Structure formats: C-alpha cells, structure tokens
C-alpha cells in the first residue's frame, strides 16, 4: 500500500467535486484495512459509502431497489469475485447505468482485458495513488451525470409529445391511445366506462374581449378545476381549443352522470380571474357510457360529440348523457 499522497490540485478538485453533493459508492472489498482507507478517502470527497465485506453481500446490495451507481469492486473476494459481479451487474441491468471500477493487484494486460470484457468501465491496479483514484471517480461521475441528463431530456421530449403545452394535460393524440387501452380493458374485464366531452360555453368573447393570453390563462385554470374534480386514476386531456375529454374507468351511467355534474359544478362555482377581472364561465358536457359493447374510439367520441351538441342546443351549462340506446 502506498502512503496517502495528494497534491494541491487534487485537493482543489476534491473540494470542487464535493460542491455537487454526495454520491453513494458501493465498496466491495474483503481486506478490512483497505476498506477503512477507501471509506476515509471517499467520505472526505463527499461520497456516501456502502460497504460489502465480500462479493455475496455486494450482490445482495446490488439487487435491492435503487442500488449505488458507482461501484468499486475488488477482483479477488470470497463467494463471488469482482469479475463475476461485473458480469452479473451487466446481465441484470434494468435501471440507471452503474459505473464499475475494478481494483486488483493483477497488472498484466490479459487480466486488464478480462476485467473490461466482463463489464468493468475502468481498471485500477493496487497499490494506487489517492489522487488517481479520485480522478477516475470523477470520470465515472461525469459519465453518470451525462446519462442522467440524457434520460431527463428523453423524458421531457416524451412529455412534450403526449401533453398539451398550455394546460399540461394529455393531448389529443395521447387521448386516442389512452381511450383505446381503456376500451380494451373494459371489454376484457366485462366492466363499464364513461367518457365526457366538455366545451367551454361562450369562450370566443373571452378571447375577443380580453385577448388570447387571458383566454389561455382561463383555459389553464379550467384544466386545473377539472382535474381537482376527478379521481386520481381518471384521464383528463385537452381535446382541442376549448374542448376537454375525460375518461372514467369503471363508471356506470349513474357514476358517469355524477362525475359530469361534479365537474360542471366546480367550473360554475367560482369566477375566473381574467385580465385582473372576474368573469363567470360554464361548460356543456356530452357524456357516453360503454358497457360490454365493442365500440371504437371514433364511435364513442361521435356519441359524446352528439350529446355535447344537444347540451349546447338545450341552453348550455348542462350534461346530456348518451349511450347507443339514446340520450338523457
């Protein structure tokens, strides 16, 4: 074991590294003295440390929920060695990437190749310098940060592709997919479902009088009220313009009618603040109930739209419930 050596630049790097907050590292090492030294170094750099005294314990930790993403694995350990841990970790990967630093006294080129081919990202030969270890961990952390940023960007793109930018609700395309899935589930479970199509009454004068930005603010508040009036597992989306769609799993006629009335009352209950003025808004709702009847998304939406048209023609601010057997 070499003495602890670290120059001024490495010390500065350690301080900079710790500004990013602690990371958790799994240290799998059967040598008690080496474990203590590693733990002291890592904690001084701001890492959280999880210790495994052998490969078997390390594998138990790696199989738990949210295991560490940075791993320092000793090659030679009882039970399961570091090489086998690398292989198992790569074969079982089902979450975020795990960066593996394999440490060993073996320094021959064939051994290095074996370690990297088993799944290690980096290879460090004992005894090693403290500053070199820290530098290699910085590389690992940088790679994991890049992966997290990539995942975050992908999730953002996925959200943008399926959600309405103004209200944050599901968009029209996603609603068709979700409605299709719910139809299949309803048929499979021999249950029922309700679909509500909502349209804001007399909304054009809001845009004409107060401007489109004020109208957008009103639609955003409208979306929030609809969500608050529905169950957590109901689907709420913006169908287009000032129209919204609500999918109600496992709802019969009475439950669908009650849900529609709850939403309608929540919209009517309090005025909306638009351009620093309070205005009253209402919605008309066309409701459809599907119960063990094979219907397409287009057919269900068509029935809901006809019911909505009837609600509008009968004076607005009301619900018309429609099934394939007629209207209420």
Keywords:
5-stranded parallel beta sheet; alpha/beta; 328 residues; 13 strands; 21% strand; 11 helices; elongated; 49% helix; 6-stranded mixed beta sheet
Question: How many strands in all?
Answer: 13
Distance between the termini: 84 Å
Our count of helices gives 11
Query: pLDDT average, as an integer?
Result: 88
Main β-sheet: number of strands, strand sense, barrel status? 6 strands, mixed
Percent helix range: 40-55%
Order of strands in the sheet with most strands? 7-8-6-11-12-13
User: Please, what is the oligomeric state?
Assistant: single chain
Q: SSE order, as H and E? A: HEHEHEHEHEHHEHHEEHEEEHEE
Cα-based radius of gyration, to the nearest Å: 30 Å
Q: What portion of residues belong to β-strands?
A: 15-25%
Low-confidence stretches: 1-22
**Structural class assignment:** alpha/beta
- Overall geometric form: elongated
């Amino acid at each position: 074991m070499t003495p602890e050596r670290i120059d001024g630049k490495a010390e500065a790097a350690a301080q900079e590294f710790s500004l990013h907050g602690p990371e958790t590292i799994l240290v799998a090492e059967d040598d008690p003295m080496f474990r203590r030294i590693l733990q002291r170094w890592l904690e001084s750099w701001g890492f959280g440390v999880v210790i495994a005294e052998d490969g078997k314990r390390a594998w138990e930790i790696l199989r738990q929920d949210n295991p560490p993403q940075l791993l320092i694995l000793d090659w030679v350990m009882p039970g399961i060695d570091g090489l086998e841990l690398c292989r198992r970790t790569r074969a079982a990967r089902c979450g975020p990437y795990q960066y593996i630093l394999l440490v060993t006294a073996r320094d021959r080129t064939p051994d290095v190749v074996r370690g990297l081919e088993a799944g290690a990202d980096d290879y460090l030969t004992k005894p090693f310098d403290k500053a070199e270890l820290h530098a290699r961990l910085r590389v690992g952390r940088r790679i994991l940060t890049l992966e997290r940023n990539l995942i975050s960007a992908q999730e953002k793109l996925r959200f943008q592709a399926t959600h309405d930018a103004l209200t944050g609700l599901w968009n029209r395309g996603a609603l068709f997919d979700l409605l299709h899935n719910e139809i299949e589930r309803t048929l499979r479970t021999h249950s029922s479902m309700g679909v509500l199509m909502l349209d804001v009454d007399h909304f054009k004068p809001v845009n004409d009088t107060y401007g489109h930005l004020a109208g957008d603010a009103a639609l955003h508040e409208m979306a929030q009220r609809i969500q608050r009036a529905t169950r957590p597992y109901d689907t709420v989306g913006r169908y287009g313009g000032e129209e919204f769609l609500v999918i109600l799993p496992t709802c019969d006629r009475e439950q669908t009618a009650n849900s529609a009335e709850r939403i309608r009352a929540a919209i009517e209950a309090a005025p909306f603040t638009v351009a620093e003025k309070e205005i009253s808004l209402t919605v008309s709702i066309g409701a459809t109930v599907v119960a063990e009847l094979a219907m397409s998304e287009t057919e269900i939406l068509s029935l809901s739209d006809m019911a909505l048209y009837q609600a509008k023609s009968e004076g607005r601010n009301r619900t018309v419930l429609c099934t394939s057997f007629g209207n209420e």
